[in-house]
Design brief:
By secondary structure, the protein is of the alpha+beta class. The protein has 16 helices and 24 strands. The chain folds into 3 domains: about 300 residues, Catalase core domain (Catalase HpII,  Chain A, domain 1); about 80 residues, Hemocyanin, N-terminal domain; about 130 residues, Rossmann fold. Strands 2, 3, 4, 5, 6, 7, 8, 9, 12 and 13 form a 10-stranded antiparallel beta sheet that branches. Helix 4 runs parallel beside helix 9, helix 10 runs parallel beside helix 12 and helix 11 packs antiparallel against helix 12. It starts with about 80 loop residues before the first strand and ends in a 17-residue tail after the last helix. Decomposes hydrogen peroxide into water and oxygen; serves to protect cells from the toxic effects of hydrogen peroxide. It catalyses: 2 H2O2 = O2 + 2 H2O.
């Protein structure tokens, strides 16, 4: 066959995969031109009338045309990166027809699954307030001792419902509080900063990150040209992109994942005093991640890895829990703190500057009964607020207030989605809203308007004394503008703060992630553009990535700051409870089953989950001494276990040889820096796998309880990161 020449390749043959018919320029194009034609390998349906007659058209008859960005009705636009606000720091205006058209169309792009966060898992639980927030917020759910039912949905952002759990992606962390004052939704992510500063760009970043529209690949990945094209041209995305390329992009488990409200909220106390806050969820198990190879293995052998892990932990009684905390800031007129703009969702406030104050604890203790009825139909909305919690002029949050409500109407079939059982409030509802698709209420009365006399005046207006929701009155002034404040212009200092606060092994993972993702891009100019951004973060990082891509190392275009490091940003270096950790107990017919049963009970007593791993299903042993096998060599893989215990010299198939499946499992766990232990003659099996019993994180004891104690101690740090030497980062 004939291989057609690509415009980006000088030879007569080219590697397939070019994202566009013409190679991009290094700099953003600014000279108006018509849209590019389809690629040579693409064809569209013929242009015909509804009656089948052929239509004669010039050029791309089914595509869009014109040099300039317009509304859907052809009106040319001068700006699409900034919402229309009352002054450069004011709220977004309802009259912004371009914002509403752009967001409305985006909200309705997917039927029937969510446009974003389609792939999710959820659980029921309870939030118990400790009273620490009573002085800053009058909401009843924060009163000391208040117990509030919750439903939490975790999710990936980019993939479809059928994608894998362990892709590199931001994770959603959305919590619905069923309070006695109404529903409060805290809709956040596992990363505290966002890609964009203004919600009007949300369709753009998701369009860029989603699979290419011509081939619908790659699924649930950002390792492609359109994503890296966007983030290199919108450098406000730099901090979030760096977080995503870190270990935070591939969590070990939903149970071991932080959550963040992202935005700055305004809290009001009983005296009407206000403070600005950022919400944080802190997992009791600590913040831990998969290593890259584990994520790849899981995507193949268990694409449901995260949802299975969450459901199994709850079923086993290892209930995951998180502390909810707030960073509290004075509600000053400039809405700044230590030089950080609190209305910029691409910025964090380091915990060393504003400690997270714990205000309660959430425990998830029940799985959904029906995935569709609960996990799929739950509807979150940042506008679901309760007295004491108010919004700010964060323009990303302002757009979300419109977008979330709008998208539910299409996805859930009409305006009555709040009547679906999982969404129903636990407080009395008398909203005067009537009819519409899927109206489940049988309303009485003849006067759904206010005021009325025919229904006895009901419903009546509430007051502050009767828990009415009253917005904090604020002055609004300024010219109508599409403009960002100057404080939004710093796009690199916080990315540098984050990277330099990581441990060496975490920094190595970031460099590997960038090298992989940019290596998947087709266009060299996109790679080069992103290297220019990395040069403004860290000289060592850009040197490693450029070397991996085989491209020159660029010089920074901005001065490199010397940030005060934030140890709280690293996942390495502390100790955490071992609750819920999964231990593989490797046994065979030669194991001392009495000891196996005893040590299994000890693992349960320590709050961990033991899984018996054997050569076959069913049981091992006879009669009352038989032990049930939960995982076999065929069905198990290392990714499922946090550590492994060998009950002696097990799984041998000959002198000096192990069952190859067990050898693979042990070698993967060793390579992934997991704790490995055993008792009795287990050193024989380890030696057969090529594992040195004196290696860091490998413990062998004559006594099973001693081996378990050593293993549990190692698990407190999650992994044995010191097992392998990290190459030194090139000096700045």
């Amino acid at each position: 066959m004939t291989i057609k020449r690509s415009c980006s390749m000088p030879s007569s043959q080219s590697v397939p995969g070019a994202p566009a018919p013409k190679a991009p320029d290094l700099k953003e194009p600014v000279k108006p031109r018509q849209p590019l034609p389809p690629k040579d390998d693409q064809r569209q349906p013929e242009v015909r009338t509804v009656a089948g007659a052929e239509e004669k058209v010039k050029g791309n008859g089914r595509g869009q045309r014109g040099e300039y960005l317009t509304t859907a009705t052809g009106t040319r636009l001068y700006e699409t990166d900034h919402s229309l606000t009352a002054g450069e720091r004011g709220p977004t205006l309802l009259q912004d027809h371009h914002l509403r058209e752009k967001i409305t169309h985006f909200d309705h792009e997917r039927i029937p699954e969510r446009v974003v966060h389609a792939r999710g898992a959820a659980a029921h639980g309870t939030f118990l307030a400790n009273g620490a927030a009573e002085n800053i917020c009058k909401a009843s759910l924060f009163a000391s001792g208040a117990r509030t039912p919750v439903f939490v949905r975790f999710s990936t952002v980019l993939g479809s419902r059928g994608s894998a759990d362990t892709v590199r992606d931001t994770r959603g962390f959305a919590t619905k509080f069923y309070t006695d004052e109404g529903v409060f939704d805290l809709v956040g992510n596992n990363i505290p900063v966002f890609f964009i500063q203004d919600g009007i760009k949300f369709p753009d970043i998701i369009h860029a990150a989603k699979p290419h529209p011509d081939r619908e690949i790659p699924q649930a990945q950002s390792a492609h040209d359109t994503f890296w094209d966007f983030v290199s041209l919108h450098t406000e995305a730099t901090a979030h992109t760096l977080w995503n390329m870190s270990d935070r992009g591939i969590p070990r488990s939903y149970r071991m994942m932080e959550g963040f409200g992202i935005h700055t909220f305004r809290l009001v106390n009983a005296d009407g005093e206000t403070n600005l806050v950022k919400f944080h969820w802190k997992p009791a198990a600590g913040v831990h991640s998969l290593v890259w190879e584990e994520a790849q293995i899981a995507g193949g052998v268990d694409p449901d890895f995260h949802r299975r892990d969450l459901a199994d932990a709850i079923e086993a009684g290892a209930y995951p829990s998180w502390d909810l905390g707030v960073q509290v800031f004075p509600d000053t007129e400039d809405e700044m703190f230590e030089g950080i703009d609190l209305l910029d969702p691409t910025k964090i406030v380091p915990e060393e500057l504003a400690p997270v104050q714990v205000i309660g604890t959430m425990t998830l203790d029940a799985n959904p009964t029906n995935f569709f009825a609960e996990t799929e139909q739950v509807a979150f909305h940042p506008g679901h607020l309760v007295p004491g919690v108010d919004i700010t002029n964060d323009r990303l949050l302002q757009a979300r207030l419109f977008s979330y409500l709008d998208t539910q109407i299409t996805r859930l079939g009409g305006p009555n989605f709040d009547q679906i059982p999982i969404n129903r409030p636990h407080a009395p509802v008398n909203d005067m809203l009537r009819d519409g698709f899927h109206q489940d209420g049988v309303h009485t009365g003849v006067a759904p308007y206010h005021p009325n006399s025919l229904d006895g005046g009901c419903p009546f207006m509430a007051s502050a004394d009767s828990a009415a929701y009253i917005e904090v009155p604020q002055e609004v002034s300024g010219r109508k503008v599409r403009q960002a404040p100057a404080s939004f212009d710093d796009h690199f200092s916080q990315a540098r703060l984050f990277y330099r606060s990581l441990s060496p092994v975490e920094q190595e993972h970031v460099a590997q992630a960038y090298t992989f993702e940019l290596g998947k891009c087709y266009e060299e100019n996109i790679k080069t553009r992103n290297l220019g951004i990395l040069a403004n973060i860290d000289a060592g990082l850009v040197s490693i990535v450029a070397g991996g891509l085989g491209l020159p190392v660029p010089e920074p275009t901005e001065p490199l700051s010397d940030p005060e490091l934030s140890p709280a940003l690293s996942q390495v270096g502390a100790e955490w409870p071992v609750d819920g950790r999964i231990i593989a107990l490797l046994v065979d017919e030669n194991s001392d089953l009495d000891t196996v049963v005893a040590i299994r009970d000890k693992i349960f007593d320590a709050g961990m989950v033991p899984l018996i791993l054997g050569p076959h299903g069913g049981t091992i042993g006879d009669g009352d001494d038989a032990v049930t096998v939960q995982r076999t060599y065929l069905t198990a893989r290392s990714i499922e276990f946090d550590a492994i215990l060998l009950s002696g010299d097990v799984s041998r198939i000959g002198e000096g040889k192990l069952d190859p499946r067990v050898e693979t499992l042990l070698n993967e766990m060793y390579r992934h820096s997991k704790a490995i232990g055993g008792w009795g003659e287990s050193m024989g099996a380890l030696a057969a796998a090529g594992i040195d019993e004196s290696a860091l994180g490998v413990v062998v004891d004559a006594d099973a309880e001693g081996a378990l104690a050593s293993l549990a101690q190692l698990l407190k740090t999650h992994r044995v990161w010191g097992r392998f030497e990290v190459p030194p980062t090139p000096s700045e």
